[in-house]
Design brief:
With about 600 residues, this protein is α/β, with parallel strands linked by helices. It folds into 3 domains: about 180 residues, ABC transporter transmembrane region fold; about 180 residues, 3-Layer(aba) Sandwich (Rossmann fold), CATH 3.40.50; about 70 residues, Rossmann fold. Helices cover about 65% and strands about 10% of the residues. Strands 6-9-10-3-11-12 form a 6-stranded mixed sheet, with helices on both faces. The longest helix is centred in the middle third of the chain and has 53 residues. It is elongated and about 125 Å long. The structure holds adenosine-5'-triphosphate and magnesium ion (MG). The site of adenosine-5'-triphosphate has 11 residues, from helix 12.
């Protein structure tokens, strides 16, 4: 009982969903209503010309041909008229198709732009819970399927629907009794075509699934080729590939087989219905109830049932896939960004580099946070960093150090407590302003396709070459960049594949320094550097840190040794704080960490 009513209400929700996604789709079309009506008009012209043609032939047969004195002049005139309808029909069809493609493509472009802009506005939690691959599918193929709704489905509904109705009308006008008998073939066509469609769709989906498995397998294994070869996995992978390939081929063959079956059945059905018409109509002609021309027209018309019905059932499928895509898109578009700008943001002053002018004082006040509310990863964090201070954060993996910085940059909002910059709660800044105060360098560096200089200035045209060089110099990246073929104009491949980890890291440093931020966050930023480079950077760190507040997270404790204050984190809490000497003297957790990480330094420290 309970489960049935539950599924009932689920179904209601689903129906409401598809109804609202339908409305959403149509809302994109609404501004183009005028154009759409023109298309409908053109379709109507096309349909009328198509239905007129057998009628014209019927007139020739009955009025001008099989009489005692054939009227050649009239035959000629009707011939010309026939040609004219062909020409008009072609023109209307051509224009309508072109207009409809424009219409559909423009709508899908608007949807895609909206979708991308919306995704960009969403908060980090959304990206935590949505896979990138899924979102790419949304932007790329779901929007295409939705465009099929406008081009394929609507067109078929109008064109095929009208074709059927007008043809049926013409038949009724010619002879309503024979017309009604002929209409009996319609349900037969509908049922057969629906049955086949189901089979065809199953096959299609099976093949698509096998195809994406095959592609997925290939992509994954090409990326991991090193591992495959080193661990001698080639024969096993090849077997797996063979199996996937076999299934995909089987799917293709099946798909082809069923589409041939479908076409042949439809052809046979067409011939049968012509035979039926010959029998019924022929008898009527012999009994002089109808004329020969009428029989001709009927035979032409009954064959015209097939293609529109086939196309309508096919597009019924299109409608369903479009709706599924529309629901998925709707799901993304209806997601509200979790973190919003305040209604009355604090006004800020912009400096020369486009950075916000700020002192750079950072304070956490009793901050508690968890990625899910039930499982806090930070407990009651309180600390104050005066402007231009250099502070370090250390602690074991998973202690919550990166989370702390995610809160400061407001990728997530705190659950309890508050975070302030220069005494102002960060939620009172516009997010763009907040992000103009700080820059972050992470261990994982995201590089974009472009030149080295592009990646340092992040494609901002207002950042001069000189600024880029200076930033790279301070970051210690200048040396290796000048050694690249092309120097600052060297092209960076996707994800920076042609650079080493450490080189990417140095670029990220330069990128942060270009902005001249008031608050600089380094999250494991030196972890991939060799000890020589790290030492150079270490020496540069004082220079980098001067004039700004610098928060450094480091596993390598030597990185933060000179920090004004080091905060030691353990399981989401700050357990110790002080400078290196104070902490060592305490002989607590920090001293423990130092001993564990650099046994040789025990005596030195
Ligand atoms: N996006 C996320 N969604 C859910 N939980 C997360 C997320 N990011 C981190 N966590 C969890 O929060 C806790 C703290 O993670 P955090 O990344 O802040 O640790 P960390 O101190 O930076 O560790 P590391 O030194 O390894 O970088 C971990 O238990 C982790 O599993
Ligand atoms: Mg971390």
């Amino acid at each position: 009982m309970i489960s049935s009513s539950e599924s009932e209400s689920q179904r209601e929700v689903a129906m409401a969903d598809s109804r609202s996604s339908m409305r959403r789709l149509l809302s994109y079309a609404l501004p183009h209503l005028g154009e759409f009506l023109v298309v409908v008009g053109l379709v109507l012209i096309y349909v009328v010309t198509q239905v007129m043609q057998p009628w014209l032939v019927k007139i020739v047969i009955d009025r001008d041909l099989i009489v005692k004195h054939p009227d050649f002049h009239a035959i000629l005139m009707i011939g010309i008229l026939y040609l004219a309808t062909t020409a008009v029909g072609l023109l209307a069809n051509f224009t309508q198709n072109r207009k409809l493609q424009w219409f559909g493509q423009r709508i899908v472009r608007e949807i895609r732009d909206d979708l991308y802009a919306h995704i960009e506005s969403l908060s980090m939690r959304f990206f935590d819970t949505h896979e990138t691959g899924r979102l790419i599918t949304n932007v790329a193929s779901d929007t295409n399927r939705v465009s099929q709704f406008f081009t394929s489905f609507l067109l078929s509904l109008i064109q095929d629907g009208m074709m059927l109705l007008v043809t049926m009308g013409a038949m009724l006008l010619l002879d309503w009794r024979i017309a009604l008998i002929s209409f009996l073939v319609i349900p037969v066509i509908v049922i057969i075509s629906m049955l086949f469609r189901r089979k065809l769709r199953e096959n299609y989906q099976y093949t698509r699934t096998q195809y994406s498995r095959l592609i997925g397998f290939t992509a994954e294994n090409l990326e991991g080729m090193r591992i495959t070869q080193i661990f001698n996995q080639e024969p096993k992978q090849l077997d797996e590939h063979r199996e996937l390939n076999r299934r995909y081929t089987l799917g293709n063959i099946n798909e082809y087989r069923w589409s041939v079956r479908f076409n042949r059945t439809f052809n046979a059905l067409g011939n049968l219905s012509v035979a039926l018409m010959m029998w019924i109509g022929g008898t009527a002609v012999l009994h002089h109830t109808i004329q020969l021309g009428v029989l001709y027209a009927f035979i032409s018309y009954i064959q015209r049932f097939f293609s529109p019905i086939n196309s309508l059932t096919q597009n019924w499928n299109t409608l369903q896939t479009s709706m599924v895509s529309a629901e998925r898109l709707g799901g993304v578009l209806l997601t509200e960004p979790e973190i919003k700008d305040p209604n009355q943001p604090v006004t800020v002053r912009l400096g020369r580099t486009g950075m916000v002018q700020a002192e750079g004082a950072v304070a956490f006040d009793h901050v508690t946070f968890g990625y899910t509310p039930q499982a806090p990863v930070l407990h009651d964090i309180t600390f104050t960093v005066p402007p231009q201070a250099f502070v370090g954060f250390v602690g074991e993996t998973g202690a919550g150090k990166s989370t702390l910085m995610g809160l400061l940059t407001r990728f997530y909002d705190v659950q309890r407590g508050s975070i302030t910059v220069d005494g102002v709660d960060i939620s009172r800044f516009r997010q763009a302003d907040l992000h103009r105060m700080m820059a972050i360098v992470q261990q994982e560096v995201n590089l974009f396709s472009g030149t080295v200089a592009d990646n340092i200035r992040l494609f901002r045209t207002d950042v001069s070459d000189q600024t880029v060089y200076e930033a790279a110099e301070i970051a210690g990246a200048d040396g290796f960049i000048r050694n690249l073929p092309g120097g600052y104009d060297a092209w960076i491949r996707a994800k920076g594949a042609n650079l080493s980890l450490g080189q990417r890291q140095l670029l990220a440093f330069a990128r942060a320094l270009v902005l001249n931020p008031k608050v600089l966050i380094l999250d494991e930023a030196t972890a991939s550097l060799d000890s020589t480079t790290e030492k150079i950077l270490q020496e540069g760190l004082t220079r980098i840190a001067s004039g700004r507040t610098t928060l450094v997270i480091a596993h390598r404790l030597s990185t933060v040794r000179d920090a004004d204050v080091i905060y030691v984190m353990h399981q989401g809490r700050i357990v110790e704080q002080g400078n290196h000497e104070e902490l060592m003297a305490e002989r607590g957790y920090y001293a423990d960490l130092v001993h564990k990480s650099t046994p040789s330094e025990v005596h030195v420290g």
